[in-house]
Write a structure and sequence with these properties.
alpha/beta, 3-stranded mixed sheet, 10 helices, 8 strands
């Protein structure tokens, strides 16, 4: 997904048709159709047509990448255009903030379209893949941006003893972590969940307005 925030409107580039439908519904509910433009397309470095699965839902879309469409060859497919940043910029007058989470396409798009990328004031992105590839992108961006790596989940929750981590999709490890909690006696369980760090964290993250302000302050401090 690519979201471009400009002074007059926001542009959303999304590959999966089902996600586009959900986004359009949310935009209509919140009366934002005049401020948000949705482009149902994949982002790449040259124009083409891509066969992508038509029935991926919101939950599974978190793991979809246009770099791995071959594994969906037995799914019901639909065609979407592949567009470039140059195409997207035809919708832009005053680029301001770029939010990029495209599951790997950043490693092609940023080097290829950097002359356009660098026109944004702020870039907020999730980098995927090996650490060496991530640092290559940061090295490019550092020519024009003051780059900062924001905290990931483990560093955010590291002081919360009630939060346990397991590897993604590792059902056995998740079961073991759950079993450890279930075997706690009443006193240990109470001490696990009744502490000031956890209460303060829940107080902040149980209100989206406070979360938004916290994220805004962190971005503006960069």
């Amino acid at each position: 997904m690519l979201v471009l925030y400009i002074l007059q409107k926001n542009i959303l580039v999304e590959t999966l048709p089902n996600i586009v439908k959900v986004a359009k519904r949310n935009i209509d509910i919140n009366n934002l159709s005049e401020k948000i433009v949705i482009i149902n397309a994949a982002l790449g470095i040259k124009n083409s047509i891509l066969d992508i699965p038509a029935d991926i839902d919101v939950e599974d879309s978190r793991y979809f990448s246009t770099n791995s469409v071959d594994k969906y060859k037995d799914s019901h497919l639909t065609k979407v255009p592949v567009i470039t940043m140059k195409d997207v910029f035809r919708e832009i007058n005053e680029p301001y903030l770029l939010k990029m989470d495209c599951e790997g396409c950043e490693y092609d798009v940023i080097p290829y379209s950097y002359d356009l990328i660098k026109m944004f004031k702020i870039i907020f992105m999730e980098l995927h893949g090996k650490k060496s590839k991530r640092f290559q992108i940061l090295k490019i961006l550092e020519h024009d941006f003051d780059c900062k790596i924001l905290a990931g989940p483990k560093s955010v929750f590291t002081d919360l003893s009630a939060v346990k981590f397991s590897r993604e999709f590792d059902v056995l490890e998740l079961a073991k972590k759950s079993s450890e909690i279930l075997r706690l006696n009443e006193k240990d369980y109470f001490n696990l969940i009744e502490n000031e760090e956890l209460k303060n964290f829940i107080k902040l993250h149980s209100n989206w307005d406070r979360v938004t302000i916290a994220i805004y302050n962190e971005i503006m401090s960069i």
